Amino acid sequence: HYRDKRLVPYLAAVLKDPDSGVVEASLRALGRIGEVDVHPQLIAALRDSRAGVRREAATALGLLRVPNDK
User: Fold this and answer.
1) Cα–Cα distance between 37 and 7 in angstroms, integer?
2) Is there a contact between 54 and 25 (Cβ–Cβ < 8 Å)?
3) How far is Cα 22 from Cα 55, in angstroms, rounded to an integer?
4) Using CA atoms, how far apart are residues 31 and 17, in angstroms rounded to an integer?
5) Chain centroid to CA 6: how far?
């Protein structure tokens, strides 16, 4: 399932794909998984030239479970 944390490295690698649909799907899955380790990649995706990618990155960031000390 897309909530399996073992998928995080693979989903993060897909963020460089030229197909925005692939990147957007990966961002959605990363957001659902909620692994805070992908925070830097999600921040970087906010600077993507594609509006859909930026939107999904912002949504994924909102779903992360960031500890209070970060």
Assistant:
1) 12
2) no
3) 14
4) 18
5) 14
